[in-house]
Amino acid sequence: MPFSASHQCLHYTQFDRSDMPVTALAKDYPHGHTTGRHSHPHAQLIYAVRGVMLVGTDQGHLMQLLLDEIKDVQPFSLQLPNPQDTRLVHITQTLSQNPEDDTTVEQWAVRLRITPKTIHRLFVKETGMTFGQWRQQARLLTALERLAQGEKVLSVALGLGYNSPSAFATMFKRQFDVPPSRFFDQLS
Fold it and tell me: 101, 159 in Cβ contact below 8 A?
């Protein structure tokens, strides 16, 4: 069932009921849109033609499945797994909403009345990442979103709490093998 103007009012889950082996839905979402937590009876491939889209699961980004299914893809790892522990949820929600937040593990430990060692142990156990790695991934996701919207590298770097654009560019290039100013050029 191809997408057409007459289907624009249909909710995306209505496509789950199709008898067709493949269906398509093209949809523009405004910045900050969320579908909320949900599931589908059939597998779906979702992607962004422009911009950045975050798709989350209890286990992290579904990169391994995509690699198994699409062998020619040259992936880069950019997952941001969500923890279940309420103390870590408080930390990750704060950092997701305020990626420039430089609160240290020691400061979080005082706020949450636990030890820094407990925070480190729980982060690795629940996300597979250290606290620092998780915070960096959150900042990278925000950076990609802002760069996709046309924001200048200087503004993104300073807005995410980096001391200088060069510090941000170094971290960005280490992750993606390309400077932030050229990231979206390589995708087109």
Answer: no
8 A C-beta contact, residue 166 and residue 105 = no
Query: In sequence order, what are the residues at sequence separation of 6 or more whose Cβ sits closer than 8 angstroms to the Cβ of residue 134?
Result: 80, 81, 92, 95, 123, 127
Domain locations in the chain as residue ranges: 86-187
Burial of 7-38, coded b for 16+ CB within 10 Å and e otherwise, reads eeeeeeeebeeeeeeebebeeeeeeeeeeeee
Phi, psi of 175 (to 5 degrees): -80, -40
Cα 46 to Cα 25: distance, rounded to the nearest angstrom: 10
Dihedral over alpha carbons 8, 14, 18, 20 (to 10 degrees)? 40
Question: pLDDT, tens digit, for every residue of 10-60?
Answer: 455 666 666 555 556 667 788 888 877 877 776 666 777 777 777 777 666
Backbone angles phi, psi at 33, to 5 degrees: -65, 140
Pick the CATH number of 86-187 from 1.10.10.60, 3.50.50.60, 1.10.10.10, 2.40.50.140: 1.10.10.60
pLDDT in tens, 69-120: 666 544 455 778 999 999 999 999 999 999 999 999 999 999 999 999 999 9
